[in-house]
Amino acid sequence: MLHHRLLGYLDEVARSGSIRRAATRLNVASSAVNRQILSLEEEMGTPLFERLPRGLRLTAAGEVLVRHVRDTLNGHERMLAQVASLKGLTRGEVTVATMASIAAGVLPGVIGTFRETHPRIVVKVLVLPVDQIAAALLAGEADLALAYRLPPDPRMRCIAEFEHRLGAVMAPDHPLNGRYQVRMADCLEYPLVVADHSMTLRDVLELLVPEGTSFTPVVETNSIELMKRLAQTAPHITFVNLSDVGEEIRRGLLAFTPLSDASAIIQRASLMQRARSALDGPAHLLAVRIQAEFERQSVPD
């Protein structure tokens, strides 16, 4: 604690430019602050402040030390927040920007489990088109971004990346259910409910249609929720990732069968943060929970 107090003294003197003003803000005696600064300068073997008629100014050595001190103090605060979080004491909020398929698929289960452990943290979810998700993160409107096929950007840092393969999703009593794999050609014999052209998933699906074969869905939509609801009634089929239908499979509402045609097509979801910003306690904890759930459902190496 003494070391932490000394760092706080140095930081406040640097901000105030005056031992007297720093002591007032710290609510301690000026002599105590001055004594600590002099002791630190003696230990470092160099002056940390220039003594000017109107106050103090950092020397070059002082500037180097203060940068280190502020990094240390910020790291200490993040550590305390994370420890408090582990004890269930954290309050605050975290915002994640994501796409419709993830918001309707894996994210509700993640948030439900997260809220059981951290009931004092408010979770906000922004559902956006993929081209607006990165923009929301970089603008500070979201703490985390989670989406498939996010474009690379040096202003963002990837926390984790997850790989998923597409499958055919259908009612448990569908004639195709129970197979180890199905081909896209097999599915074309049934009424298809598919993503429309506003979704990146549509481009992937069209790559799987055999050449010279007609691809005529009976429903096209940008709603993953509608796709899943219609697929619960045979003989409809839709196509999504396993992570999008985990809850429905657990409840016996849907079945998932891998597409053999899609074995070489990997869907990559990325969990991102701003490159120059450290995650606070709530955002860090939610990122850990998202990573754990996605890794559980990812394609094995």
Automatic annotation (TrEMBL):
Q: Which residues form a coiled coil?
A: none
Question: One Pfam family name from the record?
Answer: LysR_substrate
Among SUPFAM superfamilies, the record links this protein to: Periplasmic binding protein-like II (SSF53850), Winged helix' DNA-binding domain (SSF46785)
Q: Which GO terms describe its cellular component?
A: cytosol
Q: Provide the GO MF annotations for this entry.
A: DNA binding; DNA-binding transcription factor activity
HTH lysR-type domain mapped to chain residues: 5-59
Q: List UniProt keywords, sorted A-Z.
A: DNA-binding, Transcription, Transcription regulation
Tell me which PROSITE patterns the record gives: HTH_LYSR
Gene3D superfamilies the UniProt entry points to: Periplasmic binding protein-like II (3.40.190.10), Winged helix-like DNA-binding domain superfamily/Winged helix DNA-binding domain (1.10.10.10)
Q: Which InterPro entries match?
A: HTH-type_LysR_regulators, LysR_HTH_N, LysR_subst-bd, WH-like_DNA-bd_sf, WH_DNA-bd_sf
Annotated signal peptide: none
> According to its UniProt record, which protein family does this protein belong to?
Belongs to the LysR transcriptional regulatory family.
Query: What's the protein name?
Result: DNA-binding transcriptional LysR family regulator
